[in-house]
Amino acid sequence: FTSESYYSLLDYATGDTVIPFDDHTKLSADSEGMYFKLYMNGLQAERYYKLLIKHNNNDGVTIYDEDYYFKIVK
Asked: Given this model, what pLDDT does residue 61 score?
């Protein structure tokens, strides 16, 4: 086990978890770096969402909260 990273999505206004960290939110990697695909069909229009990244490695678990957020527009 060297490292694994996951994403989570929160409702920016309420802080409620919309998409939790789990096996379905594991980041992929290629020669250019890490990435993920976020399917937005189930997200509400005109709401803000906040992205968190969780990184597991041999040293432990770190959750990055860099206040990355976006809005779903119609």
From this structure: 95
22: tokens are 């789990």
Phi-psi label, residue 2: left if phi above 0, alpha if psi -120 to 50, beta otherwise: alpha
pTM: 0.88
Neighbours of 52 (CB within 10 A): 20
Closest of 28, 11, 8, 27 to residue 19, by C-alpha: 8
User: Span 42-71, mean pLDDT?
Assistant: 96
Question: Whole-angstrom Cα distance, residue 6 to residue 21?
Answer: 6
